[in-house]
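Final report, closing paragraph on structural work. Over the funding period we assembled a curated collection of sequence-structure pairs, and we close with a single example.
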Amino acid sequence: MYSDLAGKVAVITGAATGIGKAIALRFGQEKMKVVVDYRSKQEHASEVVQAIKEAGGEAIAVQADVSKEEDMKRLIEAAHTSFGSLDVMVNNAGIQKEIPSHEMRLDDWNKVISVNLSGTFLGASQAIKYMLENDVKGCVINMSSVHEIIPWPHFVHYASSKGGIRMMTQTLALEYAPKGIRVNAIGPGAINTPINAEKFSDPGVKASVEKMIPMGYIAEPDEIASVAAWLASQEAKYVTGITLYADGGMTLYPSFQAGQG
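Its predicted structure, as stored:
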């Protein structure tokens, strides 16, 4: 736990389920004030809000589409109106869909890019604008993926979006470091989220994924939430411009683990 987080205000996109939900719940345990963004799952978002309050934090749920600039402005305004500030922005919302690259339509490409990459930019830029205007030395956390550096056939739109987040994170970190605003990313590996539930329910598929992870297991969302809490805290006050890979070693070329090659 990080005592400096108590009372801080955070906005988390895509916080009704999965990694976003886990981060919201962890921030609640840290006694933070949380704006829980959701796109369509209002009931799930309300449950997250209630859990945060029960943990000792404060929370509200706000519906917003991260790919729309006006919606992102409204999220930031909700944080200010309800809690009086914005200290931490977590751009977590993201989507993926398997499509062979030669069959991918422009609409398929644009849908993923608009949420994953443009949505992250809108969230980061609106948060930074607020922090500059209100002299807040806050932090932005972007949810990337191991696929910002690991190619992923059939997911070229997703991998491209995450590669873009990597450079966006580095650029924003360099640009706003003199203002005391930190910008970092988290690169999860295989995580047991609802979006992966069907895939990991197949024992054969699950085993094949675990073979790509040197630590040998698929992580739970709260293991990523722990990383987010650290990056948001003053324990990470000298950290900016990085992607912190929380992947069990997936980015370490696991095929070489036994010394072959």
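The chain has one domain: 3-248. The chain is about 45% helix and 15% strand. We thank the funder for supporting this effort.
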